[in-house]
Amino acid sequence: MNVLEKIVNSVNSFSKSERKVADVILANPQTTIHSSIAALAKMADVSEPTVNRFCRRLDTKGFPDFKLHLAQSLANGTPYVNRHVEEEDGPEAYTAKIFESTMAALDTARQRVDINAINRAVDVLTQAKKISFFGLGASASVAHDAQNKFFRFNVPVVCFDDIVMQRMSAINSAEGDVVVCISHTGRTKNLCDIAAIARENDATVIGITAYDSPLAKECTLVLSLDVPEDTDMYMPMASRVAQLVLIDILATGFTLRRGSKFRENLKKVKDSLRGSRFDKKDFNN
Amino acid sequence: MNVLEKIVNSVNSFSKSERKVADVILANPQTTIHSSIAALAKMADVSEPTVNRFCRRLDTKGFPDFKLHLAQSLANGTPYVNRHVEEEDGPEAYTAKIFESTMAALDTARQRVDINAINRAVDVLTQAKKISFFGLGASASVAHDAQNKFFRFNVPVVCFDDIVMQRMSAINSAEGDVVVCISHTGRTKNLCDIAAIARENDATVIGITAYDSPLAKECTLVLSLDVPEDTDMYMPMASRVAQLVLIDILATGFTLRRGSKFRENLKKVKDSLRGSRFDKKDFNN
DNA sequence: CGCAATCTGTAATTTAATTACAAGATATCC
DNA sequence: GGATATCTTGTAATTAAATTACAGATTGCG
Questions:
Q1: Domain HTH rpiR-type spans what residues (chains A, B) (predicted)?
Q2: Does a structural domain hold residue A89?
């Protein structure tokens, strides 16, 4: 695991002085790797052994080894750490933090995603007679987005963010239909019902949701995205971005599977939009 | 430039002993970063100062600094680059590429985003009597998402993805109202009209769109996201994720500006959802 | 062949990091 | 509420590492 993330994660297990060290390092990681233990100790206003103990607590052999790990973490150019927004953050701070948290979330999602499941989902989708996307609340916009994408593929697609419509649609589903249920927590009761109903009617149910959730249990195929997120106070952000990227991936897999002939269709859809838009050349350069 | 590449490139300008050092390092770079200068000197069968001179020749301050650079080179072969999906890509390939492209897009967005504009947008939004989010096509789902977020703030929010409704809503806007128009290209004619109408009716119009686009010209305040994207063949992906992150940032700025008392309200909204969900404890662990 | 320039290693010096230990703070138990 | 135990933290001593200065060796060139 990334050392920077590790620091953030274990900030609670630190002692007072160790936290001072952590703060200084997180504030200027780039400076840290070029500092001696003495300089860092001074910056954090603690003694040198404290810095050393801090390094050891992070499972490194000592300060030099810690710097090595830190250097590797910083190598990407940017430390994608899930830093939480604080009360007193200014615009620069919270903007940076949200970008970074989102990127960090995507990074973990990328590592944890089950490619086999994606591949099977693409299989199922390409063979679907009809595709339905269902989501509620924040996940509704993800469902809309999915509809917008798959709609271009010349496949029957529906999308409902209304429980009653979802229910009716689920009841009317039949073999060969694919229902995609989207929920970050996987604990939305109504959506679980929908999934169950759809499956009873022989539809294939794909869940974009948390592994091991009630919704997951109702699905034929689960695409889980374990994205760490602080939902205590604010609203789902990173998880929803990860869901969208997953939709992008499914859509891409879909077009690739359908072959090149099919992709001409996409161009056609794109061209049809031209009339509703101003010409590009008038405004670029 | 990457230190490893640098070593390879300048192998000709090395002296005999220095080349021995280079060979050892290139053969086991991973070991090198965990070795002392003495150990490395022994492996290369040269003296310690020779190793030191070698490091300096590579424009590093000395051996420890060299190890830092080496560590960074080893950390990540491929930073997040915008790699395009190819015809013959398998699931692993396109999944990785889409994740990376999205992250690369967020990275550039982060660097280019105008913090001042964000701050002013937050200003405007916190003082709004009513907030409207308008988007069409792919941007409609972004607008929905924005509505979902700002709705929790106990502010009058509307969101339309229907031109007629948007038009009516725009005509009815008044001073103190804020209209947010979302469009990646900024060339959607209908949305430009809406922006113009809203402004004629004294609303403040925020555009989440391309800088210098027709839509941007109609807006009071533009939040531009120049995200490189390959829209030739497929559909907007990265740009829409960037838009969502921007919405997240605005929402976060909003809550922070409103102060802590206000955030209790968010908890209330969250708690109200509890009834519609299965209990968490039943399914974790 | 001999001088000059460059390279390389040894030993001394400096700097940095680590360890051992003691004082102080904090929690816990009667 | 006081005494004991545990955990933190810092000072000083020790050790290890890196760097520098210098001298011997090697190579190139006239």
A1: 1-77
A2: no
